[in-house]
Write a structure and sequence with these properties.
The chain contains 13 helices and two strands, in the order αβααααααααααααβ. By secondary structure, it is mainly α. α3 runs antiparallel to α4, α5 packs parallel to α7 and α8 packs parallel to α10. The longest helix is centred in the N-terminal third of the chain and has 18 residues. The radius of gyration is 22 Å and the shape is flat.
Length: 319
């Protein structure tokens, strides 16, 4: 946002704070700068990464150089790591740059390392790996298994539900086993979306080892659970037959949720999948999706309930 003086900038900032307070939101002070002209109005990383020259004759070296630049920018800008990674990886997500099969293993390793460093890219990561699904082998699946279980172990304790949910969706998409302890850790969070994906895997696949403590959730399915923040998990779990409530007729006893049930309303759809973007050269890869076995039409751009557009992000303000 551009204004004529610092006083005007302060007024604008206070106005934005006032508006956000009506929605119980706050500005992140660490992401605000007030600067005077002249200054660069684009970040250095956008300029350099945008102009990077990928050489088809030696794509492996180009990929290595590109990721080295990406990680260097992330190291120098720790508060913008997620922005930098997301910006840098869009060219692969949208197939602006098509990965050659001989390059894939190097690219795969760099992508997995990037996801460990910045798991906020897991939605982009998922679409890229779906796009190049025909390149994946048993070694790829083993690497994905370690990645998924590592992300769950690191992020469930701090309620990073975006990362946990996307790790589970990766497991569902590429049929990766989840350790029993990881499943129990997710159940303990009671996060609606993560637990719905987990219940989907428990009931519709053989990907969950052991016997996760689903009974812990079922014991809470009584009283006003449908009017709590866990209503989505309770409604979908019971309605789909994935959970047996401790209170009989839980949904029928609630007027509002009985209406939803009677009209067959559902919020989580197991057969939806991330939709990969088309290549400019489709001969390089074959599009992969496990849900092709079930339903190939009307694929959504967002997996299940994980809707990128439903998240509210407040970007840094620059005057």
């Amino acid at each position: 946002m551009y204004v004529s003086s610092k006083d005007e900038a302060d007024k604008v900032l206070k106005g934005i704070q006032l508006i956000l307070s009506e929605f119980q939101l706050e500005i992140n002070e660490a992401k605000i700068k007030i600067r005077e002209f002249p200054f660069a109005f684009e970040d250095e990383f956008t300029t350099i990464l945008h102009s990077f020259d990928f050489r088809e004759t030696n794509q492996i070296n180009s990929i290595k150089h590109y990721f080295s630049l990406l990680w260097a920018f992330a190291e120098r800008n720790p508060k913008k790591t997620d922005w930098i990674f997301k910006y840098a990886l869009r060219i692969f997500e949208y197939s602006t740059i098509v990965i050659q099969k001989k390059t894939w293993k190097v690219f795969e390793d760099l992508m997995i390392k990037s996801a460990l460093v910045e798991p906020a890219i897991l939605d982009i990561f998922t679409r890229i790996f779906i796009t190049y699904g025909s390149y994946l082998d048993m070694d790829s699946k083993e690497k994905l298994k370690r990645l998924i279980n590592a992300i769950i172990k690191e992020h469930f304790t701090v309620q990073h539900n975006f990362e946990t949910a996307w790790a589970l969706w990766l497991a569902k998409t590429f049929e990766i086993e989840i350790e029993e302890q990881s499943a129990n850790d997710i159940i303990a969070t009671r996060d609606n979306i993560s637990n719905l994906i987990l219940l989907d895997l428990i009931n519709n696949s053989c990907l969950i080892k052991g016997s996760p403590n689903v009974a812990d959730i079922e014991a809470e399915l009584k009283g006003d659970i449908l009017m709590s923040e866990n209503w989505l998990l309770a409604y979908e779990g019971v309605n789909k037959g994935w959970l047996v409530p401790s209170e009989a007729n839980l949904l029928n006893n609630n007027l509002y949720f009985k209406i939803l049930k009677d009209k067959n309303i559902e919020f989580y759809k197991s057969n939806k999948q991330v939709k990969p973007y088309k290549h400019k050269d489709e001969e390089h890869t074959e599009v992969y999706s496990v849900v092709q076995k079930q339903q190939t039409d009307n694929q959504e751009s967002v997996a299940a309930l994980i809707d990128e557009k439903s998240n509210l992000f407040i970007s840094g303000l620059e005057f």
